[in-house]
Amino acid sequence: MSLDQTSTPAAPLDGNAAAGLLQEVFVFDATSATVTCGGCGATAQVGSAVLYGGAMGTVLRCAHCDTPVLRLARTPTGLWLDMQGARSLMIPNDPQA
Amino acid sequence: MRETDTALADRPRLQWRTAEVVRVIDETPRVRSLVLSVPGWPAHRAGQHVDVRLTAADGYQAQRSYSIASAPEAPQLTLTVERIDDGEVSPYLATEARAGDRFEVRGPIGGYFVWTAALGGPLLLIAGGSGIAPLMAMLRHRAVAASDVPSVLIYSSRTFADIIYREELDRMAALSDGPRVFHTLTRQQPAGWSGGARRIDREMLAEVAIAPGRHPRAFVCGPTSLVEQAARSLLALGHTANRIKTERFGPTGA
Asked: Which residue, among A3, A16, A74, would best test binding to B if mutated, counting the most B CBs under 10 Å from its CB?
């Protein structure tokens, strides 16, 4: 696992590589949550989404239709979270199930 | 302190802590394990990772994520790092860091690519190169927890000398309830080699992996090409997508 937050990788990683960044935002482990894509309606665990990361921010895309379901960007003002592409996020009672 | 910092400070479970290198283990010519002492470290689960932050004298910071290789039960935290020549963090960790050195870590991070003995099995582990690290945490946890869930590790390395944790894996595999370990060497095989001699593919998985009918939990970790090939092959063999968890390395590896 290796999300280099100082450069832009050419190839995508898995959503779980963003777990550290997401843990700054959410009180629960977001990679274990199920996201419903606003583009195609597919559901998947956030950890299995396709991640593009780099200095400009982190984008998690739906593995089925490529819609960006979650975007994170760190700016001098603060940390931005854009979930326009996500219809819902289901946080399981038991993340291990 | 800015307001955003105050808000983030309310989440004590993800704070930067100082890690001190206790011991360095040379695993292969390109791979070292760093055994770290991290005061206050919360218990991790096998498969989780940490963020490592290095700060240069001029204040420049570089940050990378590394899988934890040690079992949750181990007293110290072990990271296994492969040297990537153009990397920003790995050349230091994999060549220069020595006992007594300090740097910052935060974690444990992630609840997706995780296995605990309580989850049960069967366990199907597929690794390429230093992608073995989080899977080794699972196997070490399995051993310490005295779990006897049927487990198979399929591990791809370039050459015999590049096999990380080779002797420990041999010892585990020799136990009556130990995991079955299948090595494949993609570049060069020693004389009399009885393992695989090519990249992991569908045919190999059909032969040595746990059958889909037994519904194993599959964890695949390694370079992107290996992970995609293995995950595609598992799906083609009839394994279900929600039982396959993957962790790709970046294009530059660790």
From this structure: A16
ipTM score of complex: 0.73
Q: Topology of B117-249 in CATH?
A: Rossmann fold (3.40.50)
pTM tops 0.95: no
Question: What pLDDT, in 10s, does the model give residues B184-202?
Answer: 999 999 999 999 999 999 9
Q: How many Cα neighbours within 13 Å face the side chain of B3?
A: 3
CATH domain B17-109 topology:
Elongation Factor Tu (Ef-tu); domain 3 (2.40.30)
Alpha helices in chain B (DSSP H): 3-9, 90-91, 132-144, 166-174, 202-208, 224-237
Cite the beta strand spans of chain B per DSSP E: 17-28, 31-37, 49-55, 61-67, 77-82, 102-109, 123-128, 151-157, 180-185, 217-222, 244-248
B111 in contact with chain A, both atoms CB, cutoff 8 A: yes
Report the pLDDT value the prediction gives residue B29, as an integer from 0 to 100.
92
Does B83 reach chain A within 8 Å, measured CB to CB?
no
Domain boundaries, chain B: 17-109, 117-249
Tokens found for residue A35 = 């996201």
pLDDT digits (tens, 9 = 90+) for A28-58: 889 999 999 999 999 999 999 998 876 668 8
Element (H, E) at A70: strand A68-74
